[in-house]
């Protein structure tokens, strides 16, 4: 009953580790701590059922060792964020594509029983239809989105050719306690909560009327558990809330005393909205946590973001310069 969680010290990975341990599973976490944080697992420091390996998923020897005795693999390890992926595509390819290949090969050699890959809704780019089904055209807008999709292609190919019992879950805008605090994209909650703590205005991109399919982290973990416990193979499944809300509404829920608007960014959709009919039919999963409850849960642990970087319009402009330079050409 040993599960391997790559990226298990990260935001979603640490919540998954919490859940697996609570279910009586033994967990081995592999994390190079480039994105993950040891403090996300400190609550389990005396738990003999948790083993933490500081290792890189692109290291074949490390992953062969990590796979020993493993029954199920949850592959979450990845580099995230748009701008760093534009600046450092090689690093993203190594982490997200080579790392997935190495993990798949190690899992195949170990004859694991289930492999669950965490993909990204960013593969859809700016879709033609909402809610967006899994059959939509794949249109990655930047290297992060491309490398996450290439990782998914590997997983599906290994399921097809080698019979690896694998599923892929395309996550939409996951939020919750421990959400990462670096980066100016994809971590709007971390950005906003750090700004709230510092008494700074919330930086809203564009007019704020863009909507996002914010999905609470416990719902994402439920989906991962459902995928691991199912007998389905070779499917890509959306994971979303069924209820997109605007960024302005999020600021309202956070009771922001002041907001400031910054330029809209090229390559960003005006809406993210998952069609979840397939995952409901295949796994019986559906989201449970309304955005209002999820935001309140985060406000209860707001001190987590006290040491996070506090973004301002000026610092965001500097950090996203390459974004506008490269994606503005499209």
TrEMBL record:
It comes from the Bacteria. Pfam families: Epimerase (PF01370). Residues 4-240 form the NAD-dependent epimerase/dehydratase domain. Pathway: Bacterial outer membrane biogenesis; LPS O-antigen biosynthesis. InterPro entries: Epimerase_deHydtase, NAD(P)-bd_dom_sf. Belongs to the NAD(P)-dependent epimerase/dehydratase family. PANTHER family: DTDP-D-GLUCOSE 4,6-DEHYDRATASE-RELATED (PTHR43000). This is NAD dependent epimerase/dehydratase. It comes from Reyranella soli. The lineage of its organism: Bacteria, Pseudomonadati, Pseudomonadota, Alphaproteobacteria, Hyphomicrobiales.
